[in-house]
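Below sits our specimen:

——
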Amino acid sequence: MLARKRRGPFVAGNWKMHLTLAEARELAREVAAAAPGLGGSGLVLVPPFTSLAAVGDAVAGSAVGLGAQDLYWEDKGAFTGEVSGPMLKDAGCAYVLVGHSERRRLFGETDETVNRKARAALRSGLSPVVCVGEVLEEREAGRTTARIDLQLAGGLAGLSGEDMGRVIIAYEPVWAIGTGKTASPAQAEEVHAHIRRRLEEAYGKGAAGCAIIYGGSVKPANSYSLFKEENIDGFLVGGASLEADGFVGIVREALRAYREET
């Protein structure tokens, strides 16, 4: 594989459909207050749409970035209930999740719609966090890499090597999301290494700037061992991001692993 510079961990907290405005503002302030002690990491909070402004204000001037949980592929129009890339950019977002497993499973998103959304994000100056992952039946049948290959090919179709410098891939084994189960470091690394090989085959040196992060019941207790793996660049954190100590603990443990290597 291509030689690449090992980066500090990129950690995004996906709050999903949780927290009132007051709760979101307070949690964001707590994370922002801890950020100076987490230098070398990239921190992003991904609240519901209703809390974007409040969280953006709470982290303004800090090292914490703002992301959104979804977007529509058109910039504007008669699409009731949707939010566009330009709107998210105007709200202060730098990142947006695309194709999260819950969007695929509950709302019928396909690799084609993921691709349209990733393109829209890039067009609007946002970095898409493109999510891929297999369900338990696919893993047990030995079809994990086949599923990942289909999702990568479809979700990234038409993107250039330059585009890939702004894309983040999140591997989230669906069987490990919100279940308390976690892929072992070796299992996660195997898939991350496979993803990196596929990206390098498709984009050559353009793939070197693409971070590949892991999502699936990440906690302070397992983030150190996961980040020690060569191809795991950080985490997409769900439930553990709803409490400041737990979220910051994940980042600190990943940083500990990173600093031991550098």
